[in-house]
């Protein structure tokens, strides 16, 4: 056996990758690294001579005879037999019914027949006679042997050998592939690793075009397109004038295309480099696999000019030229992660592709066989790849796996690239953030058609809406509990009487009144009373820790705080208080008239632009922020809810009034003649025996298990609205099966957009997939913009940050102009308007519905509450036993999302003669500290002690590497219930 071997050699980096892929996919799968080059021959072909030329070609190039061995070896090797049998097939198709169809079938079969790497040669030939003097000739090989640069040279040699009868003496001496492998072995891998580590430093995430794509092998589809001759010439001239290579320009424009498709400003894709080192003599004429795939990282700050970005990209790529030989797996390790990308690009600036010898004047002589056409059928295992050829004209082939990248997306990528070419030719100094890949139709779709929501709304306050309804239906029940009820007339009368008392205590327009009250008819009555004075209310949940309540009251600085006798002692001293159930309050109310206030009784004029309420949410700095909604923003939401929901029936209100989910469930019925049923889903029974089911309920998705565990009559009969966190069809399926006639609404909206700004309606029995339910379309007079870098609109299907504009925007944050200016910014698509930056990552789908994808920051949505990890981490760090902390949301069990905290203990104080045996962290003390400081929904369900927080290679907390709570066996805190 050894005497039959000529050589045993190592593998090049790309050969290792291709061999791994070939063996990984198995013998039954398509090997996408099978390449076929076909030429059409015209003339009196001497078939035996062509076959002899092919045999001579295999004798001449050792690496064409190579096989590959991996079993029982530490490292794979390629072995070169001294001789191999020529794999040659031929057929005469002149008598076939359809010669071209038969040829296509045979070529396809020849192409996809698998090679076995251990059975050389990994190349075969097929000759098909189509007519008297016309042939189709195919050379099929595994990519592990040859790169694209080699193919034109190989075909040229084949034709020269044909003309010399297989005599290779007329050809220049062969430079052996082993010389290149020896050069590879001499490289300084340490320096290369350092270079790549620096180039990829700070990279936060891989760039995946199809992150959920099946990695099974699949034949790609190809989309071919080209620049016009004018554009090709212009691109070449512009590149030359700017000191850029054409390759750099195409690489940069393709990076921008991917950026506008992924929503990323710091991305990576693979580039195929020639791998032919100029210092290796004769390398340009060597035949074999020299190419390598390496990452190209493109950072695209919005304010950098396009031409500046391209020049920087060229400098960065030039700095890595000496290190492009490193294996991709080794490069990925330097980045501290596995897969970096799932798309590649190759700039095919190969030698002359003609199989004829350019210097041969007899190439077209009569009686000579001529090569009249050639084509290469290539493939790839990546979901997406771009091949660029300089031309002229410049041509592109966009390859995509159909199961991962749809034809529509492929066409969109083509169009975006071509628009960026036009942009480079027209305005190379334009900042990257101002580059627009949308055409006029796409722009109108995402900016105008999807936001066609204009609706006439009364210029009125929410107070007036309620009082008008009370006059229409005075005897109808407005608010009830299991024990008592108030009709509309009594509610209007009592709230008016209380309003007169509040006005005496300073309540008036643009003043804030804090409500520290339990869920009760008195709470509803008091909120309406505050509104009748023109003031705004600040709801404070009395179940929150006393420290938290005190902090919110200090932040709000209310003109008056309204509470009850049993809660008053928990409030800070010095507050201006009104205790509702105090005898003095009852005495004061007895002498005041009831009913609505006359305009002359109001301390100051009241209108739709006045504040209606301020609801506090979690703050990233550790300081809560109060969102101020106006009557104008609230009324549009309420009237739309009255129009959409079964609002004149019974609405079950179970959540605290300090949670903005409650706003719609409480006030939409009260302006529509409905009944608000106050209850707690934690009480048994929720409803009285025999009590009718509610018509409408608004809950978070986390309430679904609660509803499923309660008697069926607690669930609504008309409509249910989900909001506050992501809803999936899988979680919804069981409840819908038991309530098939109920309409489901999935709503979305930060508190800053006055409860909700978008909605997706699911009619009874409409099918719903298992995945996330869309958050739908904008509500009345609301515009939703999905924007990328530079606030440019992104195309359909592309992730971007959601910005909300329109009548529903809140005024801003109470007594916090800095944060208001940061989050409420000028809208570039409506003169004089603002838009709110949500921090949510979304995209439009093909049906014009918004899909929620996640956050652009670390903010968490938990059971409908907004949680800033920074606020929880700040509370943890305030405990003396905690040195450092991290907080994440985990869902290790589907449907059971929990807040988990990780804490590093403080080091023992004082000198230590020996390494200390530190006592365990006082977990219960820390949890109790959090319970005194934070509301229940912000107290982690688990607190885990760690010796150190894991970090990425770039020094940031690696939240993905934090362990599961069950692994560490840490004690758990209480799991807060949904609101």
UniProtKB/TrEMBL annotation:
Residue ranges of domain AMP-binding enzyme C-terminal in the record: 871-956
One annotated Gene Ontology cellular component of this protein: cytosol
InterPro entries: AA_adenyl_dom, AMP-bd_C, AMP-bd_C_sf, AMP-dep_synth/lig_dom, CAT-like_dom_sf, Condensation_dom
Highest rank taxon of the organism: Bacteria
Region (Disordered): 957-979
Domain AMP-dependent synthetase/ligase positions: 467-814
Tagged with keyword tRNA-binding: no
BP terms from Gene Ontology: amino acid activation for nonribosomal peptide biosynthetic process; lipid biosynthetic process; secondary metabolite biosynthetic process
Keyword Phosphoprotein: yes
Classification via Pfam families: AMP-binding, AMP-binding_C, Condensation
Database matches in PANTHER family: FATTY ACID SYNTHASE, NONRIBOSOMAL PEPTIDE SYNTHETASE
Protein name from the UniProt record: Non-ribosomal peptide synthetase
Native organism: Streptomyces fulvorobeus
């Amino acid at each position: 056996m050894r005497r039959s071997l000529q050589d045993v050699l190592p593998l090049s980096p790309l050969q290792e990758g291709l061999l791994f892929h070939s063996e990984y996919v198995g013998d039954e799968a398509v090997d996408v690294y099978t390449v076929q080059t076909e030429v059409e021959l015209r003339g009196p072909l001497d078939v035996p001579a062509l076959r002899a030329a092919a045999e001579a070609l295999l004798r001449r190039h050792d690496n064409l005879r190579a096989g590959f061995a991996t079993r029982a070896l530490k490292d794979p090797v390629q072995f070169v037999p001294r001789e191999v049998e020529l794999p040659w097939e031929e057929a005469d198709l002149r008598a076939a019914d359809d010669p071209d169809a038969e040829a296509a079938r045979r070529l396809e079969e020849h192409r996809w027949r698998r090679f076995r790497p251990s059975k050389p040669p990994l190349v075969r030939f097929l000759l098909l006679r189509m007519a008297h003097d016309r042939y189709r000739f195919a050379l099929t090989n595994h990519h592990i042997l040859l790169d694209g640069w080699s193919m034109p040279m190989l075909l040229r040699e084949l034709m020269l050998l044909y003309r010399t009868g297989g005599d290779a003496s007329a050809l220049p001496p062969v430079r052996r592939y082993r010389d290149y492998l020896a050069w590879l072995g001499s490289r300084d891998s340490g320096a290369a690793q350092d270079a790549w580590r620096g180039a990829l430093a700070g990279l936060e995430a891989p760039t995946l075009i199809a992150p959920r794509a099946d990695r099974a092998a699949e034949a790609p589809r190809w989309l071919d397109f080209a620049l016009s001759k004018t554009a090709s010439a212009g691109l070449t001239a512009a590149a030359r004038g700017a000191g850029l290579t054409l390759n750099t320009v195409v690489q940069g424009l393709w990076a921008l295309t991917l950026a506008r498709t992924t929503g990323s400003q710091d991305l990576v894709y693979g580039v195929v480099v020639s791998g032919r080192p100029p210092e290796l003599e004769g390398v340009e004429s060597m035949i074999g696999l020299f190419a390598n795939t390496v990452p190209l990282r493109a950072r695209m700050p919005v304010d950098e000019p396009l031409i500046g970005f391209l020049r920087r990209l060229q400098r960065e790529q030039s700095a890595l030229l000496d290190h492009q030989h490193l294996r991709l797996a080794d490069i990925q390790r330097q980045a501290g992660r596995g897969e970096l990308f799932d798309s590649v690009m190759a700039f095919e600036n190969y030698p002359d592709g003609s199989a004829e010898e350019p210097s041969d004047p007899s190439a077209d002589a009569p009686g000579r066989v001529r090569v009249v056409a050639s084509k290469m059928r290539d493939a790839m295992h990546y979901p997406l790849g771009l091949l660029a050829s300089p031309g002229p004209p410049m041509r592109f082939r966009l390859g995509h796996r159909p199961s991962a990248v749809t034809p529509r997306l492929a066409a969109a990528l083509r169009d975006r690239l071509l628009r960026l070419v036009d942009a480079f030719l027209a305005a190379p100094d334009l900042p990257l953030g101002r580059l627009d890949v949308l055409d006029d139709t796409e722009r109108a779709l995402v900016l105008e058609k999807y936001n066609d929501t204009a609706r006439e709304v009364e210029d009125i306050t929410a107070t007036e809406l309620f009082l008008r309804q009370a006059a229409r239906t005075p005897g109808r029940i407005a608010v009830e509990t299991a024990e008592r009820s108030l009709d509309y007339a009594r509610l209007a009368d009592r709230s008016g009487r209380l309003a007169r008392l509040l006005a005496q205590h300073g309540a008036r327009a643009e003043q804030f009144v804090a409500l520290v009250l339990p869920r009760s008819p008195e709470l509803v009555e008091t909120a309406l009373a505050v509104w009748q004075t023109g003031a705004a209310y600040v709801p404070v949940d009395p179940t929150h820790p006393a420290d938290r309540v005190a902090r919110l009251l200090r932040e709000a600085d209310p003109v008056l705080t309204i509470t009850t006798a049993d809660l008053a002692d928990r409030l800070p001293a010095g507050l201006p208080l009104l205790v509702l159930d105090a005898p003095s309050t009852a005495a004061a109310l007895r002498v005041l008239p009831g009913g609505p206030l006359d305009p002359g009784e109001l301390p100051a004029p009241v209108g739709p632009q006045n504040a209606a309420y301020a609801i506090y949410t979690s703050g990233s700095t550790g300081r809560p922020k109060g969102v101020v909604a106006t009557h104008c923003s609230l009324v549009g939401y309420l009237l739309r809810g009255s129009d959409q929901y079964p609002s004149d029936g019974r609405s079950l209100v179970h959540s605290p009034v300090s949670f903005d989910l409650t706003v719609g469930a409480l006030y939409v019925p009260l302006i529509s003649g409905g009944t608000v049923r106050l209850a707690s889903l934690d009480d048994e029974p929720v409803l009285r025996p025999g009590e009718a089911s509610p018509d409408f309920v608004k809950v978070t998705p986390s309430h679904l298990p609660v509803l499923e565990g309660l008697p069926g009559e607690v669930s609504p009969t008309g409509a249910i609205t989900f909001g506050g966190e992501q809803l999936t069809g899988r979680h919804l399926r069981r409840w819908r099966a038991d309530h098939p006639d109920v309409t489901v609404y999935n709503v979305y909206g930060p508190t800053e957009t006055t409860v909700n700004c978008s909605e997706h309606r699911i009619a009874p029995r409409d099918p719903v997939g298992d995945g996330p339910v869309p958050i739908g379309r904008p509500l009345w007079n609301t515009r939703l913009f999905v924007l990328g870098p530079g606030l440019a609109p992104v195309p359909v299907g592309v992730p971007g940050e959601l910005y909300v504009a329109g009548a529903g925007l809140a005024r801003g944050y109470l007594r916090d102009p800095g944060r208001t200016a940061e989050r409420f910014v000028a809208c570039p698509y409506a003169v004089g308007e603002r838009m709110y930056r949500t921090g949510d990552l979304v995209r439009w789908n093909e049906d014009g519905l918004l899909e929620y994808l996640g956050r652009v920051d670390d903010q968490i949505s938990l059971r409908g509450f907004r949680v800033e990890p920074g606020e929880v981490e700040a509370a943890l760090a305030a405990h003396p036993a905690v040195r450092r902390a991290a907080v994440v949301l985990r869902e290790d069990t589907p449907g059971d999302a929990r807040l988990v905290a990780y804490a590093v203990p403080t080091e023992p104080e004082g000198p230590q003669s020996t390494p200390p045996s530190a006592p365990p962290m006082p977990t219960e003390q820390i949890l109790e500290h959090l319970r005194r400081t934070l509301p229940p929904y912000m107290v982690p369900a688990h607190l885990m002690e760690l010796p150190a927080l894991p970090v990425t290679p770039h020094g940031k907390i690696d939240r993905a590497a934090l362990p599961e709570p069950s692994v560490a066996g840490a004690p758990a805190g209480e799991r807060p219930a949904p609101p």
